[in-house]
Amino acid sequence: MNLHTLIKGLDIINRSKNEIADITVEGITDNSAEVKSGFLFLAIKGNDVDGHDFIEEAVRSGASVVIGEKDYTDISVPYIQIKNSRKVLGDISNIFYRDPSSKKIMIGITGTNGKTTTSYMLKYILEENGIPCSIIGTIENIINGKSVSSLNTTPNSLELHKLISSSKDEVIIIEVSSHGLIQYRLEGLQFDYCLFTNLDHDHLDFHGSIEEYFRAKSLLFGKMKPDGQAIINADDYWGEKLGELLKSQGKDTFLIGKSDQCSLKISEYHNMKFNLKENGESFKVHLPMPGFHNLFNTAMAYSTARMLNVSREHVLKALSKFPGVTGRFEVIEQINGSTVVIDYAHTADAIFHCLKTARDCGAKRIIHIFGFRGDRDASKREEMANISSELSDLFILTTDDLNSVSYDDMAMSLQELNEKYNNNGIVIPDRTLAIKQALEMAKKGDYIVITGKGHEQFQQPFSLPTHSDKDTISFINEQRNQKDI
Ligand SMILES: CC(=O)N[C@H]1[C@@H](OP(=O)(O)OP(=O)(O)OC[C@H]2O[C@@H](n3ccc(=O)[nH]c3=O)[C@H](O)[C@@H]2O)O[C@H](CO)[C@@H](O)[C@@H]1O[C@H](C)C(=O)N[C@@H](C)C(=O)N[C@H](CCC(=O)O)C(=O)O
Ligand SMILES: Nc1ncnc2c1ncn2[C@@H]1O[C@H](COP(=O)(O)OP(=O)(O)OP(=O)(O)O)[C@@H](O)[C@H]1O
């Protein structure tokens, strides 16, 4: 694509005198390692390193033009200085990939918890009804039926544009993180449906306050197409606020919740069944996954599918067959009659729902294994431990992803936290040994609930030669079987 076309709408601060008229841009990247001949390299000042330090490398690799924020003169190819590289990456990706979101039914789902679950439910309903869907989210990106595991919940704007333009699917479902919104990863995209699940204490190390976290999440709703539709969980405190805000801005806002003001009203939750009231008509829905929280995820997926013209009967039929989501209240029955649950809960609210669900499922005793991520919001740890100590019979504190924190430092933090609870819990820093201990303790009717990692692989090795919570359960069970033989 011609460089002029690409930079036409940009707010340019400065450009080097080199002639740019005839430059054809063969590709775009913000990663010097991916530059090929004729590429445009966009320098981003990142959290870890500064892309401007890689400009020379990019030029050596064949970049024919460079865009960046810094005043940079010592360069042999044209250099264009702009104000905000992350935003410009979205703007030019959108032009380069010819506005791909305008050609798709775009669904963005944001909120602290429930994005992945709602995405998979919705994808399942739509595909059961002949509407192919792409998913871009925490577990994986699925495009044209092919899955590739993902690094981020929301990839950067270049990757997003690439994925959408390569998709032949009619609908694109994107899990939208607050980091993604703040870092302009959604720049250039427009959405037909924007969903808000809930807001809970998380990522406050990054956002500073819950109000700022909310402000970040609400940025998604500024990206709706002119006839776009907001779908909001109004039972959530912040959801209610968002609903009011959007209505005051004249945006088409569909509320879900227990109050009479909601367009889809939820009531009478009992024994895996609940009531929905839509357009004055009430009907029963069988919950496709256990837990009160999944009622909201189900209602969100239900209403979005209905807006895409799938009949009620067909939505309910698909929901009744929904196979669940990896690492979200994933149940593994044990031979001795105890039950293991693997769940991705890593906020206090998610832990509350997960432990409450285990109890509702009939758990006699709950042994809860969990930890905390290194380098991530430490201010939520006490809240998580509070909930666990209230709702479980025994909690075992263990290691989650360490990131840059050392194993010993994390073990010490776990110990300190446990002391606050009069050493009522147990600290077993080795995650695999924590799971082994719980399996040995559990009797018929007990639930072992392991939260935090869900579908993910371990970031660091532990004593047992396993790579995930699920893998660890299988390994221990196999070892036990061999002993029995
Ligand atoms: C702290 C953070 O948010 N970092 C994200 C950010 O990285 P960054 O742009 O600051 O990257 P950087 O490594 O400093 O590099 C700066 C620039 O130099 C370039 N570079 C770098 C090295 C080199 O050799 N050459 C080169 O050109 C890089 O390509 C980049 O353009 O932008 C990248 C692209 O979008 C993200 O992959 C990366 O996510 C990291 C891996 C991460 O862990 N992020 C977490 C906090 C996150 O974003 N989480 C949310 C979900 C949260 C939740 O709800 O649970 C998510 O959406 O995943
Ligand atoms: N609507 C909800 N309200 C509260 N907790 C929920 C809800 N839905 C799911 N959870 C809990 O949060 C965990 C993560 O769910 P899910 O993966 O669907 O959320 P997510 O928003 O995609 O999370 P992440 O941003 O961390 O990827 C679940 O395993 C469950 O414990």
Automatic annotation (TrEMBL):
UDP-N-acetyl-alpha-D-muramoyl-L-alanyl-D-glutamate binds at residues 32, 152-154, 177, 183, 185. Signal peptide: none annotated. It is found in: Cytoplasm. Residues 109-303 form the Mur ligase central domain. Pathway: Cell wall biogenesis; peptidoglycan biosynthesis. GO terms for cellular component: cytoplasm. GO terms for molecular function: ATP binding; magnesium ion binding; tetrahydrofolylpolyglutamate synthase activity. Keywords: ATP-binding, Cell cycle, Cell division, Cell shape, Cell wall biogenesis/degradation, Cytoplasm, Ligase, Magnesium, Nucleotide-binding, Peptidoglycan synthesis. Gene3D superfamilies: Mur ligase, C-terminal domain (3.90.190.20), Mur-like, catalytic domain (3.40.1190.10), MurE/MurF, N-terminal domain (3.40.1390.10). Its main location: cytoplasm. Its cofactor is Mg(2+). It comes from the Bacteria. The modification N6-carboxylysine is found at residue 217. ATP binds at residues 111-117. Its EC number is 6.3.2.-. Pfam families: Mur_ligase, Mur_ligase_C, Mur_ligase_M. Catalyzes the addition of an amino acid to the nucleotide precursor UDP-N-acetylmuramoyl-L-alanyl-D-glutamate (UMAG) in the biosynthesis of bacterial cell-wall peptidoglycan. This is UDP-N-acetylmuramyl-tripeptide synthetase. It comes from Peribacillus cavernae.
